[in-house]
Amino acid sequence: MSEANSKIQIKGLRDGLLVTLDDAPWEEQRAALFAQVDSQLEFFRGARLALDVTSQVLHVNEMVELRDQLSDRGIFLWAVVSESPTTEKTAQLLGLATRISKPRPEETRQYAVEDLGEETALFLNRTLRSGTRIEFSGHVVVLGDVNPGAEIVAEGNVIIWGRLRGMVHAGSKGNRDAVICALDLSPTQLRIADEVSATLKPQSDPKPEIASINHDGRLHAEPWTIS
Predict the structure, then answer these.
(1) Are residues 125 and 89 in the same domain?
(2) How many domains does the chain have?
(3) Which domain holds residue 61?
(4) 3-state SS, one letter per residue, for the chain
(5) Nearest CA among 215, 223, 158, 156 for reference residue 190
(6) Using an 8 Å Cβ cutoff, are 137 and 119 in contact?
(7) 142 and 159 in contact (C-beta within 8 Å)?
(8) Residues 139 and 176 occupy one common structural domain
């Protein structure tokens, strides 16, 4: 095994791939990661990647550069796990997850994004602030608000247990059965599949609402009740 390969471990997750780096200096870890990626680009291309950087301290510029370099190779960085509070805060600032489900021992590298299944959901237990963009290939559930300037793009449904003031696009790959729910539905923009709504003004007495595409093919909202 080469020196570069010895610095990283790759395991399958239900949500894609988990890459674990060692405690070497960051530039060595980054070089090892891309040496592995570039040597097996067809395997990695299209994958959703979670990165465990152990105690490495990463700042915004370093994490943005990493995310962009992965994106250039067709790889979506969705999570960064770290023992460092600074790195964790940086990841959250960039809209990345910082908690993942660890793989079972028998899971291996062949588990990739196509194995996620239709019922996969991303749970975010925080408010999404301006500048945050979340993209996910399943459903998205937010326990918090979505502030103006924040964006969510999901292939499935989007459920917000809070106030929606930002932009949400559900059914992003053309699923016209997708829905968007919020306790206060006052977004800058709603999209389901290729249907787009205008800005909805904040309500003086907000009530839970659900947005969907009606029988006429138009996006509309109605009271969100659980029967």
Answers:
(1) no
(2) 2
(3) 3-93
(4) CCHHHHCEEEEEECCEEEEEECCCCHHHHHHHHHHHHHHCHHHHCCCEEEEECCCCCCCHHHHHHHHHHHHHCCCEEEEEECCCHHHHHHHHHCCCECCCCCCCCCCCCCCCHHHCCCCCEEEECCCECCCCEEEECCEEEECCCECCCCEEEECCCEEEEEEECCEEEECCCCCCCCCEEEEEECCCEEEECCEECCCCCCCCCCCCEEEEECCCCCEEEEECCCC
(5) 158
(6) no
(7) yes
(8) yes
pTM exceeds cut of 0.70: no
pLDDT, tens digit, 9 for 90 and up, residues 132-178: 888 888 888 999 999 888 889 999 999 999 999 889 999 999 999 99
Cα-Cα-Cα-Cα torsion 143, 144, 146, 150, nearest 10 degrees, comes to: -80
Two tokens, residue 208: 């839970």
- Residue 182 to residue 160: CA distance in whole angstroms: 5
In a domain, 185, yes or no: yes
pLDDT at 189: 86
Q: Which residue has the tokens 């395997």?
A: 43
pLDDT tens digits for 49-62? 899 998 889 999 99
Please check whether residues 148 and 206 belong to one and the same domain. Answer: yes
Q: What residues of the chain score a pLDDT lower than 70?
A: 1-7, 12-15, 101-119, 198-204, 226-227
Does 214 lie in the same domain as 151?
yes
